[in-house]
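ok so for the tutorial part 2 we go from a plain amino acid sequence to predicted structure tokens. step 1 is just haveing the sequence, like this:
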Amino acid sequence: MLKTQIIAVANQKGGVGKTTTTVNLSACLAAEGWRVLLVDLDSQANATSGLGLDKEEGASAYRPLLGEGNLADKIKTSSFRGLDIIPSEVDLCGAEIELAQSDRHLHRFKDALEPLIRSARYDVVLIDCPPSLAVITLNAFCAADYLLVPLQCEYYALEGIAMLTRVMNQLKESGANADIDLLGVVMTMFDARTRLSHQVVEEVRGFFGDKVFDTVIPRTTRLAEAPSHGKPIIEYDPYSAGAAAYEVLALEVKSKLQMHSPGIVPQEVPPQ
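step 2 — the prediction. this is what the tokens look like for a chain of 272 residues:
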């Protein structure tokens, strides 16, 4: 039985393309034939609406995080083949306070997710984390095999990412999740016309080396429009620059996961 790979997509800074990356990477991996589950742990529920689902009371991971009910019961099938989602809702805000007062408060999501992982129902789980380093994000980190960090091509790009990696290393050293690793940094909102974008990418590559994905995600109107139509970019505009970028990023992610977990073999691409 192949182990499901769990990827937390996180950056405590908002507006960096975190949810855009989670949604579109999920869709592109599904298009490659992988069975994908997207878990929306951000109470803003943008990944939920970005896949065309309504924000419904009681539909999120909120109750399973508190030990009430099964996480599998919250799974919804998206309109995109091979991609399921556990939606979010505004009530997930309350989980921050309740989790902090609970036993095993850092491992509640891992405990809830474990039956799904044992079932081998999915090849990969991507978690859209809140734009913070509070309890829900730490729960995602404790459950994850890998951390993926979207980073915008702007002046303050490196601000805050040191905190992310420091928290990840603290979780490793404390034993809360000794196995988590940085899968990579993906540069987003790249504008090839500006010198700043090129300088930021060069600076980040100098700092993180080969942990930075070769693919850069362009700043495009079509990528910004797609969520309002409830579709990933490869469905909304499959021939756009944004769609091409996320398709190539998905191939890079697959390559990295296969490198670290050679037993994983992608399924054949389903017929269109």
